[in-house]
Specification:
Blueprint: H1 15-35, H2 44-74, H3 79-100
C-alpha cells in the first residue's frame, strides 16, 4: 500500500472485514453455547399463558367438584357448591396475579 491508498480493495470486498465478521459469528455462537442460551425465540409467554388458562379452568372446576361432593355427603345442597366454586374462582385469580407479576427472562 502507498501512503495515499485508503487500504480498500477496489472490488468493495475487504477480506479483513469478512474475516472479522466470521470470527464475530463464531464467538457469538460459542458464547451462546457456553451460557446455554439458544437463538430460538423465547417460549416463556406461551408457558405463562398456558398456566393462566389452567388456573382459569382448574380453580372453579375443582371448587365446584369438591363443593358438589360435600353437598352430596352432607346434604347441604346447593351451598357447598356455590361457596367452594366462588373460593376456587378467588384462588384462580390470586394465582393469575402471581403469574402476571413474574419477571420475563
Amino acid at each position: 500500500m502507498t501512503a495515499g491508498d485508503p487500504g480498500q480493495d477496489p472490488n468493495g470486498v475487504d477480506p479483513r472485514l469478512t474475516s472479522l465478521d466470521e470470527r464475530l459469528q463464531q464467538a457469538h455462537h460459542a458464547e451462546s453455547v457456553r451460557t446455554g442460551k439458544s437463538e430460538r425465540a423465547s417460549t416463556r409467554g406461551y408457558s405463562q399463558g398456558n398456566r393462566v388458562l389452567a388456573e382459569l379452568i382448574a380453580g372453579p372446576a375443582g371448587g365446584a367438584l369438591v363443593g358438589w361432593l360435600l353437598d352430596r355427603w352432607l346434604g347441604i345442597a346447593p351451598w357447598g357448591l356455590m361457596v367452594l366454586m366462588i373460593l376456587g374462582i378467588g384462588v384462580a385469580f390470586r394465582n393469575i396475579i402471581r403469574i402476571s407479576n413474574e419477571r420475563p427472562e
